[in-house]
Amino acid sequence: MTVTKVYSFESNTQVSQALGEFIAHASSEAIAKHGRFTVAFSGGSLPATACKHLRDMQSVDFSKWYVFFADERCVGLDSADSNFRLVREELLDPLMQQSRSVPADQVMVINDTLTDSTQQVADDYLVKMQTVFSGAKTKFPEFDLVLLGIGPDGHTCSLFPNHPLLEERTKWVAPIDDSPKEPPHRITLTLPVVNHARRVAFVASGAGKTSTVRAIVDERNVHLPATHVAPVSGDTYWFLDHAAAKGLSVNKPSEFKL
Questions:
Q1: Tens digits of per-residue pLDDT, 12-39?
Q2: In 3D, which of 151, 146, 157 has the Cα closest to residue 23?
Q3: What does each C-alpha distance from 241 to 168, 186, 248 come to in angstroms?
Q4: CA 229, 91, 177: angle at the middle one, nearest 5?
Q5: Whole-model pTM above 0.90?
Q6: Which residue from 32, 53, 104, 137 has the highest number of Cβ atoms inside 10 Å of its Cβ?
């Protein structure tokens, strides 16, 4: 039976500390079980929140990490719009300065020479995914952890309300050329892939997310894409500050513990 756990903290600093401990624990458990840790990051404010404390945790064996992106904008890797750039600045570069790097060939970035065609970018990213998940026992890869944010419209990854990609049932990664949020050209993991993860963690903060969190977590509003994140055999976790969690009355926050 899969579970959903909601955690609420007074400040974003406390969210970051707890999330870092959670990721470190997930990493240690995965490496002990199968010798590696596969994680997918989304963008926005999530990389900063996830990595602020994580990058200084000496117990984490980053050499065994395989880093993917839950979605990526089809831009150059140095672009301010690049999710990879966010993770590089918040995690990969600081780790390199500590001589604790994630090996470069284990960071799965898009081929930014292909960005004139989102389909080619998606096809190339699929090959990268297949090289890591070649021994998958199911139709879809099983990430150890997928880290997600949510937009005010309930979107997650680059899966937006009323978009045809919400109905995708076979692809691992899909192109999108009509994102309602700039930039329009992107690739994204699909719902089946997210829902085959062993753990999915949502991160949200601020009063601007209160009603959206309530609509997803308590009301299960099917019109919001994040509501459809329901791991087949994994668990879902919400890391919120008190402002974002304020509207919850059904699935109330519990005490954070590993």
A1: 999 999 999 999 999 999 999 999 999 9
A2: 146
A3: 32, 29, 12
A4: 50
A5: yes
A6: 53
